[in-house]
Amino acid sequence: GISPGPVTDADLNNIVKLSLTIAIEIDLMAPPFPQVRFITLHQKMEKTQELGAGQKIGFRMNFQDKLTG
Description:
about 70 residues, 4 helices, mainly alpha
């Protein structure tokens, strides 16, 4: 539950220790980087097709509407 009191230095220390312990125990097992840094053209093409067509994202500038409206 949520404590009614403020967070103390001891609380923060416990959170950090528990977080580090969990991170160490559940560490991602991955092959060495030199083994996985190269991919074939076929692998790249498969991944690109999965992502679909590129689309623009972001905000449209509409300062003209604000000046005239």
